[in-house]
């Protein structure tokens, strides 16, 4: 059974940092395209960052470049999103996604709230 479980969200002040983790089971992170998405209240879910099975990394939103870092730990079979210098507009629910031929899986998400 494929399962993705996100953790690490919370309430943080502007300028602060959070580290989100996605623990995967039933799939292998290193052979999947792994992504972080987020959905702000009243908005569509958007891609934040992606790392593919070749290790190529892309950040979808210019607003997160230089502040967010995506990386995977193949030994632990986890995906991480390090978020620095957080802004109120980063508020939303963050979801982990794993994709390959035969599966397209989502976690339940973890809430990130950036507010003073």
Structure notes:
The protein is mostly beta strands and 116 residues long. The chain contains no helices and 11 strands. Strands 2, 4, 5, 6, 9, 10 and 11 form a 7-stranded mixed β-sheet that branches. Strands 1-3-8-7 form a 4-stranded antiparallel β-sheet, with no helix packed on it.
Percent of residues in beta strands? over 45%
Kindly state the mean pLDDT as a whole number? 95
Relative helix content: under 10%
Summing up helix and strand content along with how strands pair, one would put the structural category as mainly beta
DSSP strand tally? 11
Distance between the termini: 40 Å
User: What is the gyration radius calculated from CA atoms?
Assistant: 13 Å
What is the N-to-C succession of helices and strands? EEEEEEEEEEE
Query: Total number of helical segments?
Result: 0
Anisotropy-based shape: globular
* Low-confidence runs: none
Main beta sheet strand tally, sense and closure? 7 strands, mixed
Q: Which labels suit this protein?
A:
mainly beta; four-stranded antiparallel beta sheet; 11 strands; 53% strand
Condensed summary:
The protein is mainly β.
Describe the secondary structure blueprint for this structure.
Blueprint: E1 3-7, E2 10-12, E3 18-25, E4 33-39, E5 46-51, E6 57-59, E7 68-73, E8 78-83, E9 92-100, E10 103-106, E11 110-114
Parallel strand pairs: 2-11
Antiparallel strand pairs: 1-3, 3-8, 4-5, 4-9, 5-6, 7-8, 9-10, 9-11
